[in-house]
Amino acid sequence: MDVNSERTGRGLAVALVVVEMAILALIGLSWAGSYWSWDPQHYGDPPGPYLKKAAVVPVVALVAMVVAGIRRMRTVAVSQAVMLIVICGTMLCVRAPGERAYEDSYRDACHAGLGCGDDTPPTR
Predict the structure, then answer these.
(1) Cα–Cα distance, 65 to 105 (Å, whole number)
(2) Of 1, 12, 55, 84, most Cβ neighbours within 10 A?
(3) Would you say the pTM of this structure is higher than 0.90?
(4) How many other β-carbons are positioned within 10 Å of the β-carbon of residue 98?
(5) Is the pLDDT of residue 100 over 60?
(6) Alpha-helix residue ranges (DSSP H) falling in 71-115
């Protein structure tokens, strides 16, 4: 492998990681944005739909890893394998705290006068 193709591989690996992280950040910020309101009866969105949107990113990382492996672009393949592991692990760890945040938000809205019969949050 010559120096130019190695440099191109590193640049492509960095670009893919930056794009994937930016997409995940936008999805996370859009979910967090659903909780920002001055209305005490407002409650945020459940994390489930946002996690489904974010699940596209590890699929893209898996495809990029396979393609890079076939094309013998080791740097890109390894970086995408790391991203795949990190994103999947993070998604597994984020669901429970996200559900708790949603339930707390809904419970606070109920106590503020939303008129909920019970404190079980609806699924949107």
Answers:
(1) 39
(2) 84
(3) no
(4) 21
(5) yes
(6) 74-109
